[in-house]
Write a structure and sequence with these properties.
Largest sheet: 7 strands, mixed
Number of strands: 16
Number of domains: 2
CATH topology of the largest domain: Aspartate Aminotransferase, domain 2
Strand order of the largest sheet: 4-12-11-10-7-5-6
Distance between the termini: 40 Å
Order of helices and strands: HEEEHHHEHEHEHEEEHEEEHHHEEHEEH
CATH architecture of the largest domain: 3-Layer(aba) Sandwich
Strand content: 15-25%
CATH class of the largest domain: Alpha Beta
Structural class: alpha/beta
């Protein structure tokens, strides 16, 4: 039975519940969802919306998936939670095994985290503690590239673009790290070594104080939905090796097939020292993330003592169980054909947007489609227009983008791209 959401519920929500990236004054209404199935969000008033966002890129298999549901029910009958300090359990062991089969071979240790932001915090702490244990505590700063986004907690915020990362007001209280210009080389552009020269110069000047370079490989997500050359990632790996700096790759958004390969770093043919995963790890069912590292990183840290992090809900059995079920679906390989089809249909469906005067660029990679406008959108007016078209698309800044569930049908995807063209045409 679907829950009823009354007008009083919505009034209470507006007065007392703070939603992400909103003000408690002058904010537009939140749409009440009573259920979700497949790629459809079902609203309290009976309307249905095709979800083009995969609930912030996480529900890759869609909603109310029978296999994922069954995994949760079965695990609930055993135990919903147990502390991970001094104890272990089968779902966590199985999940670690599955992850290690998927990721680059050099990654051998798995640290389970609560969310993507926390996975980044763990990665930063690993890098700093690694160099401290190695007898080089002066290597404590991070190097990153502009237009990056790595999360909303303090350590993660400090590595986000100081302006585009949405955290400019916190600049004075954040650790001061080093920022290279964002890559300018397009995904399919011929490689130009000058594009990475400033990153190289920062490494030359500061490598004695840089613990790690952190970056989103190939696709920069919330910092601008920018696609760039895998060769940049390859050269970054080489430079990190040259200057004795760890490489952290944030694949929280790009991991598990979103870009057309299981992990975006595969397109560069490289492996990081530390890898952050999240979002789609549990198929969007529960909050969970993971930070994986090389044997070298874990050995050096462990020789000098314990790694200083331990969340209460680390490796929650329910989250591990549903993550195992999600990865089982990925192991069938069906995702590859699904993402290939989505890519072709996004290219065809969004191509007409290129002719619109308000559009700066249209780009597609895997199951990611982006229409970049010349001016920022007015969320208060554009969001209802998408709802009227029967789709859920949540633009930000100048970007109207979609990252749909892999199970979306061709007809549903056509509705989604048509809605984008119609709404953008009306701007």
């Amino acid at each position: 039975m679907k829950p009823l959401i009354s007008s009083d519920d919505l009034r209470f929500d507006a007065e007392h519940i703070w939603h992400p990236y909103t003000s408690m004054r002058n904010h537009y209404p939140q749409l009440p969802v009573v259920s979700a199935d497949g790629v459809m969000l079902n609203l309290a008033d009976g309307r249905e919306l095709i979800d083009g966002m995969s609930s912030w890129w996480s529900t890759i298999h869609g909603y109310n998936h029978a296999h994922l549901n069954a995994a949760l029910v079965q695990q609930t009958a055993n135990m919903s939670h147990v502390m991970f300090g001094g104890l272990t359990h089968k779902p966590a062991i199985e999940l670690a095994r599955r992850l290690l089969r998927m990721v680059p071979d050099n990654l051998q240790q798995v640290f389970f985290a609560d969310s993507g932001s926390v996975a980044v915090e763990v990665a930063i702490k690993m890098a700093i503690q690694y160099w401290h244990a190695a007898g080089r505590p002066g290597k404590h700063r991070l190097l990153t590239i502009r237009n990056g986004y790595h999360g909303d907690t303090f350590g993660a915020m400090a590595t986000c673009d100081p302006v585009n990362g949405m955290h400019e007001m916190f600049t004075d209280v954040l650790p001061q790290h080093l920022f290279a210009p964002a890559p300018e080389c397009g995904y399919e552009s011929a490689w130009d070594e000058s594009d990475i020269i400033q990153l190289k110069e920062l490494l030359e000047r500061h490598h004695e104080e840089i613990a790690a370079l952190i970056m989103e490989p190939v696709v920069q997500g919330a910092g601008g939905m920018r696609f760039y050359s895998p060769h940049y990632v390859r050269r970054a790996r080489e430079l990190c090796d040259q200057y004795d700096v760890l490489l952290i790759l944030d694949e929280i958004a790009t991991g598990f097939g979103r870009t057309g390969t299981l992990f975006a770093c595969e397109q560069a043919g490289i492996a990081p020292d530390i890898l952050c995963l999240g979002k789609a790890l549990t198929g969007g069912y529960m909050t969970m993330a993971a930070t994986l590292c090389s044997q070298q990183v874990s050995d050096v840290i462990s020789e000098q003592g314990v790694f200083m992090h331990g969340p209460t809900f680390m490796a929650n059995p329910l989250a591990c169980a549903v993550a195992n079920a999600s990865l089982q679906i990925l192991e069938t390989g069906e995702w590859h054909e699904q993402v290939q089809r989505i890519e072709l249909e996004l290219q065809a469906g969004l191509s007409a947007c290129r002719e619109l005067l308000v559009v700066e660029d249209v780009r597609v990679m895997g199951a990611i489609g982006v229409v970049e406008l010349k001016q920022p959108v007015d969320m208060a007016s554009i969001q209802p227009q998408f709802v009227e078209q029967g789709v859920w698309v949540r633009p930000f800044g100048k970007l109207v983008y979609v990252m749909p569930p892999y199970i979306i049908s061709s007809a549903q995807l056509k509705t989604l791209t048509t809605a984008i063209f119609e709404v953008v045409s009306s701007l």
